[in-house]
Amino acid sequence: MPATITAISRYLPPDIYDNSYFEKYLDTNEAWITSRTGIKERRFLKEGATSDLIVPAAQKLFADYNIDPSEIDTIIVASVTPDHMFPSTAAVVQDKLGLKNVWGFDISAACSGFLFALKTAASLVESGTSKKVLLCGSDKMSSIMDFNDRATAVLFGDGAGVCLIEMSDDPEMGIRDHILQIDGDGGKYLKQIAGGSFKPASHETIDNKEHYIFQDGGTVFKAAVKGMADVSVEIMRRNNLTHDDISYLVPHQANMRIITATAERMNLDPQKVMINIQKYGNTTAGTIPICLSEWYEEGKIKKGDYLVLSGFGAGFTWGSILLRWNMNQRGR
Ligand code: UT7
Question: From CA 286, how far away is CA 280, in angstroms rounded?
Fold first, then answer.
């Protein structure tokens, strides 16, 4: 039996920053940001860390779905902005939620983090190692953003999406297929240069601003368009699905133009593409579960729907997961 998502929730910090926020002190403007990225607003967490985005999302998940937290046996956190290098954010979340008899770990796969973690969680469930996995995709991108660099500052936001992964009660539902890839040759184009064992923090690394996001945007853009579209088309092809069979593309929200190019290669109707980049920007590991949570809560996903989840990010990492939704439609 395949594993599946049985509950989903999200948390976005309340403080909204629209494009005019950057216009005040950076050489940028609303028209450039909107036309080149599709982003209009993003949220930044003023106080706290990535675990402080995850914990309220998890608490809402437990409350909304009447989940007994003591039944969670595994926590997986996908993030490139963990609270610390160690201990893991999974351990911090366990402690803050007061969960007992649980294990867990973090996954570092940048914008593909949720996809990599979803497949990992599913494998744990399908092998019988875990029964209920609390799966969290979250980033506090504001903690590694250079607010004085117009090329990156306008792109990112903070947020969390969390879900519960369990065995499906139907062999036709749940996680049906995956294509997940890494290519370290792309590492130089999108990275946090310092702070790890390669270049530990020093006065020099601070002076050189090497703890912030570095991105060669154009190179990443081209690789993302090809990478996301290739795996999205391939996962449809090898499962004998056409654009008519797919209910939604659930794309990583990095750039509206990357999303549109992927949907076009899939020959998908624009209404079948989940897009909320205009409200939250790129929340890295948060984008896909935040989208799923919003669309599900609004009653737009129904049981049996085929969803193609696709992402591309630092590493390079990329991939797609074919998910057949196994929850009853909200509000029906
Ligand atoms: O999520 C992880 C993976 N990341 C991605 O998928 C991001 C991929 N990359 C992108 O989304 C795009 O490359 C960006 C949105 C980052 C940049 O868009 P672009 O169309 O590739 O612009 P560009 O970097 O080629 O820059 C075009 C021009 C440059 O000026 P010149 O050299 O033509 O005079 C930039 O300096 O736009 C300028 N520019 C800006 N202008 C106003 C760059 N950032 C800004 C800005 N405001 N914020």
Answer: 10
